[in-house]
Design a protein that fits this description.
Blueprint lengths: L9 H67 L3 H24 L6 H16 L7 H77 L14 H50 L8 H32 L6 E3 L1 H11 L1 H6 L4 E5 L4 E3 L1 H18 L6 E8 L2 E8 L6 H4 L23 H11 L3 E5 L6 E8 L7
Parallel strand pairs: 2-4
Antiparallel strand pairs: 1-3, 4-5, 5-7, 6-7
Helix pairs in contact: 1-2, 1-4, 2-3, 3-4, 4-5, 5-6, 6-11, 7-9, 9-11
Catalytic activity: ATP + protein L-histidine = ADP + protein N-phospho-L-histidine
Keywords: ATP-binding, Kinase, Membrane, Nucleotide-binding, Phosphoprotein, Transferase, Transmembrane, Transmembrane helix, Two-component regulatory system
Protein name: histidine kinase
């Protein structure tokens, strides 16, 4: 079966990555074991040779002493037994010397020692009168020099052993570095095979979340599961684009189809209310009044729905320097009539001279907050509006007196089409989009909105916006 990384599953790719990463590790372990075995074998062999050489050297020194003792005894008591003992010691020394010289060809005193021993043998074969002191002294000195050469050779071998171990360590260190680097490269390559399609999936998902997204045309390549997920995201993107197009078409048609008959209904109700087409009975007038109120309510709900749709279509704020006093005053002027009907007065506390924001989004926040305060606030009670800076945030507070909002409902009220239990005091029934629009506008501006408790009012909605600096002079 042919194996292809492009068509492999995610599990197969992960297992292959682990296998590739383990290959250099296995080679490193094998090479380390081989180097350790070589060093161990070399050390054991060197130790055995050193012990053997030391034993031979000690044996030769002991035999030399035995030779000297036997020769001196023979010089005093000339018996055949003592002579044979001396000859036996000389033969033993010659055998030891031959073995040492064979094992250590570096020794340069073997021939001289052999000649001296042979000369001593001949003297013992003759009937010498005096003990050959000079010959014995020569043999002792030669043996001492041989012993010293053996120790020098052992020291050189020990130094060579240390050099061998150091060289092996350096070689193993370079091999370890190379294999670790190879393992790292294999891990990076393997991880890239997995993370690259994941990053593409992330870009696809982010593209889907944009209002006017451009879905990547490049086909996702990677593990089979991620490739299938990429195709599903492509299908989802296409489906969402179709639904978005249908939603926009529906809203455009709804706004057109609703506004035209609504205008006709409102004009007709106005004509009937003013009795321009003829007098109405009290019962008929009551019915016309109800129809007029329902038409007004339907018109307001339609405008709110279209406004919420326009907000959803806005992807990025249009930042510019604004004068907050003008924005606030323009909003108060638009709501002046409704505020006067309920005898509500706005108490403004604006502590900022300039404001860097999106005028449209900021105005939507103000409109909905003032509308809420006017609709749910107590009659003849003030509406407090405060705009000030606190650390690195700009706070906008709109507060009013009235029924407090329960803590359990505060977060829920910022969701679309969610309304509280407190009834409105105006003639319009709310749609539950006001605070949702406030929260969405605040998020687009990089902030958030919440309901807080203050000492000067029963209800206070606070909008947190980031402080983006002061207007340059």
């Amino acid at each position: 079966m042919r194996f292809s990384i492009q068509t492999a599953s995610l599990r197969q790719l992960v297992l292959l990555s682990f296998f590739l990463a383990l290959i250099p590790v296995g080679v490193l372990l094998w090479q380390s074991n081989k180097s350790l075995s070589g060093v161990s074998s070399f050390a054991i062999t060197s130790a055995e040779r050193s012990v053997s050489y030391v034993r031979q050297s000690e044996s030769m020194q002991s035999v030399v002493i035995d030779i000297e003792r036997a020769v001196r005894q023979y010089g005093v008591v000339r018996t055949e037994a003592i002579r044979r003992v001396a000859l036996t010691h000389i033969e033993n020394q010659q055998q030891l010397l031959q073995q040492v010289c064979q094992d250590l060809p570096q020794l340069n005193l073997c021939a001289e020692q052999e000649a001296a021993l042979e000369a001593l043998r001949q003297r013992l074969s003759e009937e010498f009168i005096n003990t050959p002191e000079s010959l014995m002294q020569q043999i002792r000195q030669q043996q001492q020099r041989i012993t010293q050469q053996i120790w020098d050779l052992l020291e050189r071998q020990l130094s060579e052993q240390q050099q061998f171990v150091t060289h092996t360590q350096q070689q193993l260190a370079w091999q370890t570095f190379a294999l670790v680097l190879l393992t790292l490269l294999l891990v990076l390559w393997s991880s890239n095979r997995i993370t690259a399609p994941v990053k593409k999936l992330d870009r696809m998902i982010r593209a889907i979340g944009q209002p006017k997204h451009q879905f990547p045309d490049e086909k996702l390549r990677g593990p089979r599961e991620l490739t299938e997920l990429g195709e599903q995201l492509r299908w989802l993107s296409s489906r969402l684009q179709q639904l978005e197009a249908l939603r926009l078409i529906l809203l455009r048609h709804a706004s057109h189809e609703l506004k035209t008959p609504l205008s006709s209904i409102r004009e007709g109700c106005a004509l009937l209310t003013e009795q321009l087409v003829g007098p109405l009975t009290p019962q008929q007038l009551e019915v016309v009044t109800l129809l007029n109120g329902s038409a007004d309510r339907l018109s307001v709900l339609t405008e709110q729905l279209l406004d919420y749709n326009r907000l959803l279509q806005q992807a990025q704020p249009e930042w510019a320097w604004q004068t907050p006093q003008q924005l606030l005053q323009a909003c108060f002027n638009d709501h002046a009539l409704s505020l006067q009907q309920r005898q509500q007065q706005v108490k403004l506390d604006c502590q900022l001279n300039t404001l860097y924001t999106d005028a449209t989004l900021f105005r939507r926040i103000l409109d909905n907050l003032i509308n809420n305060a006017q609709a749910y606030g107590a009659e003849s009670s003030p509406v407090w509006v405060k705009l000030y800076r606190q650390d690195d945030m700009i706070l906008l507070e709109v507060a009013n007196n009235g029924a407090p909002i329960p803590v359990a409902l505060r977060e829920k009220l910022f969701e679309p089409f969610q309304r509280g239990t407190t009834p409105r005091f105006d003639s319009v029934q709310g749609s539950g989009l006001g605070l949702s629009i406030v929260a969405d506008c605040a998020r687009l501006l990089g902030g958030h909105a919440d309901i807080v408790d203050v000492v000067y009012a029963d209800v206070c909605i606070r909008v947190h916006l980031p402080f983006l600096g002061e207007k340059p002079l």
